[in-house]
Amino acid sequence: MVDCRLAAIMSGSGMSDKADQEITLEAGTHWMCTCGKSANYPFCDGSHKGSGMGPEKLELEEPTTIPVKRPSDGE
Ligand code: FES
Fold first, then answer.
1. Which domain holds residue 57?
2. Per the structure, how many domains does the chain have?
């Protein structure tokens, strides 16, 4: 089950309703890309620099499967 913090991130990025794949994240801290420019999407790789955007910190207490779709894909 996706926790509320992750649901908020996915909802804010528009990913939750248009996901085309799922990934399972390990427990721990993850920095999630919100700009869609990362070559390592959905994880931030620093490509957001200069865009005025930044990553969202996601802390998971257990392995969690999340929906993933790059915000700019296809539409
Ligand atoms: S590369 Fe997208 S937020 Fe960092």
1. 1-6+32-63
2. 1
**Could you tell me the distance, in angstroms and rounded to a whole number, from the CA of residue 37 to the centre of ligand 1?**
6
The verdict on pTM exceeding 0.90 is no
The answer to whether residue 17 is domain-embedded is no
Burial degree of 8 (CB within 10 A; 0-12, 13-18, 19+): middle
Ligand 1: residues within 6 Å at CB?
33-35, 37-38, 44-48, 53-55
By the 8 A CB rule, do 46 and 4 touch?
A: no
Which pLDDT belongs to residue 74?
A: 44
